[in-house]
Design goal:
Structural class of chain B: mainly alpha
CATH architecture of chain B: Orthogonal Bundle
Distance between the termini of chain B: 49 Å
Strand content of chain A: 5-15%
Oligomer: heterodimer
Family (chain A): Belongs to the bacterial solute-binding protein 1 family.
Radius of gyration of chain A: 24 Å
Order of helices and strands of chain B: HEEHHHHHHHHHHH
CATH class of chain B: Mainly Alpha
Number of helices of chain B: 12
Keywords (chain A): Signal, Transport
Number of helices of chain A: 21
Number of domains of chain B: 1
Subcellular location (chain A): Cell envelope
Main location (chain A): other
Largest interface: A-B, 40 and 30 residues
CATH class of the largest domain in chain A: Alpha Beta
Radius of gyration of chain B: 24 Å
Number of domains of chain A: 2
CATH superfamily of chain B: MetI-like
CATH superfamily of the largest domain in chain A: Periplasmic binding protein-like II
Strand content of chain B: under 5%
Protein name (chain A): Carbohydrate ABC transporter substrate-binding protein (CUT1 family)
Helix content of chain A: 40-55%
């Protein structure tokens, strides 16, 4: 008798625990946040998992943005795609055309039937980027823009006003000239300015002059069919780049971010343009190296219209091909991520912008911006940006390729094989070809 | 009964071969056939749409100056890495072939670069060649007061990946040269010495010809190494740049597939690459083999 009771109890236990486990929906989340940010993502996910017992999110680091996109492509073809993927901003058009996504606004409103969610809670420049056909397509997640960083002590040394960073292209050049220190034997001790060869900077400089990267309103009113890379805005910037490198007042650290960062951190260059997500790193480094860090808006040609910066970084996309129950759980997690608490945590630990108005307001009330003026620079530049298609950002199906093309053209210019105009003409032609092929496949 | 047994035995070789054959079929032949098939299409990202284009991908490739430039770069890259690599390895192998105390330790040291991963090798060279903090520029500055922009200048970047690849593969070459050297019997050397041959003559007329089977094998292996395995080093050190100067075919192929998401044209490139390697190998077997002397 006792045995029977025990058996029944044990089996009951099993059934209860089993059914409890079955109730918990598992959500796969692939992201590209490595290093320190990986821990921040994991902390957020753990917090969400322990805050309730219906949804279990499994976060997985899938390599770089590019690797994540590649892995998603193969996963989709084998039917093993995750629920949420983090895709860089330049993958937006490709995701829209992929036919595998569910716009986040549809997910919230229709699938989850969530009427309480405030769709206007996001910062306007951020939601503008990810809004197509009048609805938000992906959940803004990590956002950043470029700003100018400089060594305030070096400014004073060179007789420049540290409270007045260069605002125009002409000033940038003039300042860099004054900041450059040359040794007696002709080698450069310190360069005035440095910039890694990254296509993103060209895109931002074009937007900052209120110009578009591609036709059809930056690909927003219709598919882009032609590139504007060979027009004045882009060519002017590449020309400045070349002139400064040729003059020996700007260090060319090669492609990518690391070289320029090292040069600025080690005092080899007095100014640089980099992502706002590096504010914390540079501040720390400046303290260690014993100089004061200054930040400013991106310079632009005196004659150009005031445009602004485009939001960079990445957003979270939902893959549609999952059972309704899992999609609802996906929404719960995404909604939770956009809450004030999580946004503030994310911002303070990674340096990426919080993407909601409430989080910014709270940081202001906490005097965060008063104590960290370099973050204020980043925010003001973003919020003062003109609301236009130029700063909304281009939609290009083959954006990753376009970036590479731009980088190659900049390299060709800097090496002296081609004039800026000729290099950008070639770039534009290659981009046009790439657009044509893409459009053919995605009509 | 006897006959039946015989028959069942005749299946055994096939049975024993089948694991190898299955692996080859799944991981070598099937993907190869598949890439030929893929190369006839244009495909949208995520495989949503596929258009049959026949040999258009191939035509486009051969009309693309960037691709032709990449082929030329790769050819130069292969010729330089193999020539420099084999000459250096042979010299080092001769030095390492002596009966010295602790020689095994030195041999191991020279083999280490081959054992580390291309990513680590690439990163090491990026550190060494760093224009500001790198040891190479520091020494150049001390000795000649010059600073070289190793990875931001087309010429030097090309040189840098050649140096890194040669360094990386040297261990493999040295091991095979060492084995080859030790297979040459002392009696040959002794009789040469008795005939009054000098060190250089011995090296030129005895060592090199008798090593030719090893050299022959190493040339083919090095072609394969520098065509396919240099990818890691290029990816870490230069990413094909600056201005496409190090964009060798295998790296271009990777970018076409994994950054530009064009499986069709990437497959066409891999088919061309496969064909070229086969052709070079056949030529080498046909004409190179005449110069090989077996004992």
């Amino acid at each position: 008798m006792k045995k029977t009771v025990l058996l029944v109890l044990v089996s009951l236990c099993f059934i209860v625990s089993f059914s409890a486990a079955a109730e918990e929906v598992t959500i796969d989340f692939w992201h590209a946040m490595g290093g320190h940010n990986l821990e921040v993502v994991n902390t957020l996910v753990e917090e969400f998992n322990s805050s309730q017992d219906q949804v279990e999110v499994k976060a997985q680091y899938t390599g770089s943005y590019n690797d994540t996109l590649t892995k998603t492509q193969s996963a989709v073809q084998t039917g093993t795609a995750p629920h949420i993927i983090q895709i860089y901003e330049i993958g937006t058009q490709m995701m829209l055309d992929s036919g595998i996504i569910m716009p986040i606004e549809d997910l919230g409103k229709e699938v989850a039937g969530d009427n309480s969610f405030d769709w206007d809670k996001f910062l306007v420049p951020v939601s503008n980027y990810y809004t197509m056909d009048g609805k938000l397509n992906s959940m803004p997640f990590n956002s950043s823009t470029p700003i100018l960083y400089y060594d305030r002590d070096a400014f004073e040394e060179a007789g420049l006003d540290p409270n007045r960073p260069p605002q125009t292209f002409a000033e940038l050049k003039e300042y860099a000239r004054k900041l450059t220190i040359k040794n007696d034997d002709g080698t450069v001790e310190r360069y005035g300015f440095t910039l890694g060869i990254v296509g993103w900077f060209v895109e931002q400089m074009v937007a900052n002059q209120d110009a578009t990267l591609v036709n059809n309103d930056n690909g927003r009113s219709a598919r882009a069919t032609a590139s504007n890379l060979n027009e004045e805005a882009a060519v002017r910037f590449v020309k400045l780049w070349k002139e400064m490198v040729d003059e020996g007042i700007m260090l060319n650290p090669g492609r990518g971010w690391d070289g320029a960062n090292q040069a600025f951190s080690s005092g080899r260059a007095a100014m640089l343009i980099e992502s706002t997500s590096s504010v914390a790193g540079f501040t720390e480094n400046a303290e260690a190296a014993g100089f004061e860090l200054g930040t400013g808006f991106l310079p632009r040609p005196a004659a150009a219209n005031r445009g602004g910066v485009i939001i960079g970084g990445a957003s979270l996309w939902t893959i549609a091909d999952h059972p309704e129950e899992e999609l609802k759980a996906t929404w719960e997690f995404l909604k939770w991520l956009s809450e004030e608490e999580q946004q503030v945590y994310w911002f303070e630990n990674t340096g990426y912008f919080p993407v909601t108005k409430a989080a910014v307001e709270r940081e202001m009330n906490n005097k965060f911006f008063a104590e960290n003026p370099n973050y204020l620079t980043a925010f003001l530049q973003l919020l003062l940006s003109k609301k236009a298609v130029s700063t909304q950002g281009a939609l290009i199906g083959t954006f990753p390729e376009v970036r590479q093309i731009v980088e190659e053209s900049v390299e060709k210019t800097l090496e002296g094989n081609m004039t800026p105009q000729a290099a950008m003409d070639e770039a534009a032609e290659r981009v046009n070809k790439s657009l044509k092929e893409y459009n053919q496949l995605n009509e | 009964m006897q006959k039946l047994n015989y028959r069942s035995h005749s299946l055994v070789p096939y049975l024993l071969l089948s694991p190898t054959f299955i692996v080859l079929l799944l991981f070598l032949y099937w993907p190869s056939i598949n890439s030929v098939f893929l190369s006839l299409f244009k495909q949208a990202p995520f495989g949503r749409k596929r258009i049959f284009v026949g040999i258009q991908n191939y035509i486009n490739l051969f009309q693309d100056p960037a691709y032709l430039n990449s082929l030329l770069r790769s050819t130069l890259f292969i010729i330089f890495t193999i020539t420099i690599g084999l000459v250096f390895s042979l010299l080092l192998a001769v030095i390492l072939n002596q009966n010295l105390k602790g020689i095994k330790f030195y041999r191991v040291i020279f083999f280490i670069p081959y054992a580390i991963s291309p990513t680590v090798a690439g990163s090491l060279w990026v550190f060494l060649l760093n224009p500001v903090a790198g040891q190479v520029n520091y020494l150049l500055d001390l000795a000649f007061n010059i600073q070289v922009n190793w990875l931001t200048n087309s010429f030097f970047a090309f040189l840098a990946i050649i140096i890194a690849t040669v360094w990386k593969n040297m261990g493999f070459n040295i091991i095979f040269f060492l084995a080859g050297l030790q297979a040459i019997p002392d009696s040959v050397y002794e009789s040469a010495k008795i005939d009054g041959a000098g060190a250089i003559t011995i090296f030129k007329d005895i060592t090199i010809p008798l090593l030719s089977p090893t050299t022959f094998y190493l040339i083919i292996m090095n072609i394969i190494f520098s065509v396919f395995e240099s990818f890691g080093i290029v990816d870490i050190m230069t990413q094909g740049g600056p201005a496409d100067s190090t964009n060798i075919v295998i790296y271009k192929l990777y970018r076409e597939m994994f950054i530009n998401f064009r499986p069709g044209i990437a497959a066409a490139q891999s088919v061309i690459l496969l064909a070229l390697v086969i052709i070079v190998t056949i030529f080498h077997f046909k004409y190179g083999a005449n110069n090989v002397h077996y004992q």
